[in-house]
Amino acid sequence: MEKKEEYVKKKMTLIVNHPWNDVFEGKDVFLVPCYIGKIYHYDVKIVFPSNYLYEAKTIRDVELVPVSYIKKLRPFSFVFGFKLMRYLFCNARKIDLFMRFHVTITTAIMIIIYKMLNRNGIAYIKLDSNGVMNFEYKNNLKSLFRKLLYRRMFELVDFVSYETKMGLENITQQTIGIDISSKLFYMPNGFDEDMIKHLDINVKEYSDKENVMITVGRLGTNQKNTELFLKAVENIDLKDWVIYLIGDIDPQNITFLEFVSNFFSNHPEKKKSVIFTGAISDKRHLWEYYNKSKVFVLTSRCESYGLVLNEAKRFRNFIVSTNVGAFEDLVESGKYGCEIPQDNTDYLACILEKIILGQLDIDVYNDFSPESLSYYYQVKRMKLNN
């Protein structure tokens, strides 16, 4: 009787430049490789630098592989970079799919090394910027070297994805000396449907939600512009609505802490309706806030993508946001929310007041399909089986 030939999975490796943090397990740096492994049947490794005794472990079939370096060295030192390069050099021939984030000198060198050692391997770069990259260089040897390095990288890479349609459009309009249009594709970040099933969370319909608005992020930073939200609700009668501001506040951010203190001193009646929860690291607990909320507010000055907008949409929150990150793609021409101008307190206050008074329809998810937002759907855009 003949033995059945064992099926050998292909191997994928992502090398990142920063030490690993457990919070990454809810972000694209972990979830994209995780779902590539599930959909295309790859054994997946994520390789990262570690300056302490971080033991290799496997999470959701993804192997986390630390490359140790001396604790005194900065994470982005030359020696640290050399160790990651050495790992790639020793393992390139075993890697069927090599992945990197961002266009950098390190990424360019790694792609070139990988393709030199493994011509049949697939090299993939995931970009999260707006697509505007500086391909114009000064007339000197350093700039010339950089230009030639990037050009060679783009010649060798097999796939380059962008998170936003604007990013994809911007890079296709730029001149880098070669045509890479056939390698570019749009792949927004998705939602982790496996996790929502694992946590056994049933997403509420609008009729089951509460009169709740939320915002989530690093509160009080210049980027998040939390002050805009608080200024907008200062003189609004919230009636039976409750606002939860979810996220940590840097204790060194004295200016924002004083702003919050003055807000409640001037408006003590809002202590029960404007609530700072602190950071919530437990995914189930965090998603419970999204699930009961009707409205998600984002006042950021800038975002690379804005993963919180994905979560807001998945839990059927009407999105009120500045035009940052993937806002335009996710809101779909105003279907699932509305845009607010940067630093315009009166405009935001007007929108929130209309919502509270029932003058703005926020029950907008009747024909929404969560599958279209899932990582299963997004990662299939790569078409690795073709």
From TrEMBL:
Protein name, per record: Glycosyltransferase
Broad class of enzyme this protein falls into: transferase
Organism: Bacteroides fragilis
Entry GO MF terms: glycosyltransferase activity
Transmembrane region(s): 97-117
EC number: 2.4.-.-
Keyword Transmembrane helix assigned: yes
A Pfam family recorded for this sequence: Glyco_trans_1_4
InterPro entries: Glycosyltransferase_grp1 (IPR050194)
Keywords associated with the record: Glycosyltransferase, Membrane, Transferase, Transmembrane, Transmembrane helix
Secretion signal span: none
Domain of life from the UniProt record: Bacteria
